[in-house]
Design a protein that fits this description.
This protein is of the alpha/beta class and 97 residues long. It has one domain (2-96): HAD superfamily/HAD-like (Rossmann fold, 3-Layer(aba) Sandwich), CATH 3.40.50. The chain is built from two helices and three strands. It has helices spanning 27-38, 58-67, and strands at 2-5, 42-47, 74-77. It has a three-stranded parallel β-sheet, covered by helices on one side. Strand 1, helix 1 (27-38) and strand 2 (42-47) form a beta-alpha-beta unit. It is globular and about 35 Å long. The protein starts with a strand and ends in a 20-residue tail after the last strand.
């Protein structure tokens, strides 16, 4: 399967939309995604960080994922549309994994 995973409020805290560097990892959720990776699924972390502010959070985000032990194939930062609700037949909340 090809799996896209959000970052903030999915695998880490988001205390402020302007201080992503202060995010704290949620290791139990990271372990869930790593298990999917280990089963051979293709993991892309996809975050809206910088989508509206136009600040480049790529390096900060990449370093965080590395420090937190996240396994993945691709990272996309700042190219996610801003939305309040995603309705899709294929979506799952991290709690459902």
């Amino acid at each position: 399967m090809i799996i896209y995973v959000d970052i903030d409020n999915t695998i880490c805290s988001q205390k402020s939309s302007t201080k992503y560097q202060d995010a704290e990892p949620w290791m139990n959720n990271i372990e869930k995604i790593n298990k999917l990776y280990n089963k051979g699924h293709h993991i892309t972390y996809w975050t809206g960080r910088g989508s509206t502010s136009k600040i480049d959070w790529y390096d900060v985000t990449e370093k965080q994922l590395e420090n937190w032990g996240c396994k993945y194939h691709h990272l996309i930062v700042g190219k996610k549309p801003h939305y309040d609700l995603l309705i899709c037949d294929k979506t799952k909340r991290i709690e459902e994994i």
